[in-house]
Amino acid sequence: MAVLLSIPSGFTIAQTLPEVVSDETSTETGTIQMPGTEELNTIDADEDAEQGDAQAEADQADGGVVISAPSAFAPQEEEDIFFDADNLVPQGEMAKEGPNKVNPSTQPASKLIIVKKDYTPDTKAAQVVSAERALSLGLYDSALGMFDTLYAKNKRDSRVLMGRAVTLQKLGRFDEAMQMYEKLSTLEPRNIEVKVNMLGLLSTRYPSVALRRLLDLHAENSSNIGLTAQIGFAYARAGDAQSALKYMGMASSMEPHNAGHLFNMAVIADRAGAKKQAIGYYEKALETDSVHGAGRSIPRDSVFERLAQLR
């Protein structure tokens, strides 16, 4: 379960959006003026006729054919011109990347593909998906209501138990959430995610006990990113910022495209008073979020506000 720490208090988030300044440029369309025409000298009609006759005699002597220009008022007949489509198809190396000819006799059209929905709204699977979607959107009361209905029908469905436990944890109902995690751990004793979430919840009240169990679990599952990050949270709750940054850095190196790890490292450094280090992590988190998180994986507005105060 991905968790983002909260930025230290002491600053307010601006309620107004920055004013967008539009840079409008105007272009002037130039007009081209034709130069003035000059009067042409008139050529004597007799001289013109003599030049025309001389040119015609020269063409006939060379065996040429004299073609008269068509009249501007005479209608032109359209020629029956046909183009071969094969001439337009790329040849040589370009033909390999072009479209291929289809032979209807050897390559008949494919049959229609009928697409069916995986689940109808009345099925249990669809109700679980709806509950998980409400949980991801932060609608915890709605999610809990749906998970409660599903839990009443089947108290051994691991997916329902997990969703209900996480929802109760989000709502701050510690005892009920821990009870769900314990039941789920009994059903799936090898599920690392269940143990990580349960120990993460335990660290909110008993950080030392949870940290000891997390470290024991990490000794056998050192490649688990969620477990590594959870140890960082436990150290942060225990007040050991240096160890918290160490394990958070390990999680970030295993998952470099996740801006949440860098954001949590920035918050830990910020709370520890490491101003310069916090600024570096905040800036790196913003950069990673822009490239890999579509600008939505961390609270960017809060980060900008905090950076404005730290600088």
Features:
0% strand; 311 residues; mainly alpha
Please provide a written account of the structure.
About 15% of the residues have low confidence. The protein is built from 12 helices and no strands. The chain has a domain of 56 residues. Helix 4 packs antiparallel against helix 5, helix 5 packs antiparallel against helix 6 and helix 11 packs antiparallel against helix 12. By secondary structure, the protein is mostly helical.
End-to-end Cα distance, whole Å, is 32 Å
Oligomeric state of the chains?
A: single chain
Portion in helices: 40-55%
Q: Could you tell me the strand content as a percent range?
A: under 5%
Please tell me what the overall shape is: globular
Rounded radius of gyration (Å): 39 Å
Arithmetic mean of pLDDT: 76
Per DSSP E runs of 2 or more residues, the count of β-strands stands at 0
Low-pLDDT runs of 5+ residues are 11-45, 63-74
Total helices: the number is 12
What pattern of helices and strands is seen along the backbone? HHHHHHHHHHHH
Major sheet description: none
Question: Could you say which structural class the secondary elements and strand pairing correspond to?
Answer: mainly alpha
